[in-house]
Q: What sequence folds into this?
């Protein structure tokens, strides 16, 4: 159902709809990382930031690599989100 929301948001995707779906993905312990990685290049930095938060607690293989890429994001809010989720996971 959540992947359907991502698809329904269109290309590149309505930022508000994508952020809402990513919020709910963030409630999961694992998720469909392969189907969401394209959002790491979304033009809206809010979507990229929410992606970092959404996957931060996942045990899905590939999360660390996705966060590595987002850590070099051109937008400071995205980089800050990655730094924060990494700090929280180390202190968790």
A:
């Amino acid at each position: 159902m959540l992947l359907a929301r991502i698809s329904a948001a269109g290309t590149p995707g309505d930022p508000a709809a994508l952020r809402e779906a990513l919020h709910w993905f963030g409630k999961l312990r694992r998720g469909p990382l392969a189907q969401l990685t394209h959002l790491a290049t979304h033009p809206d930095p809010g979507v990229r930031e929410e992606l970092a938060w959404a996957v931060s607690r996942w045990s899905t293989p590939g999360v660390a690599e996705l966060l590595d890429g987002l850590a070099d994001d051109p937008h400071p809010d995205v980089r800050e989100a990655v730094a924060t989720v990494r700090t929280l996971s180390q202190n968790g």
About this structure: The CA atoms of residues 4 and 21 lie 9 Å apart. The mean pLDDT is 95. Residues 76-91 form the longest helix (16 residues).
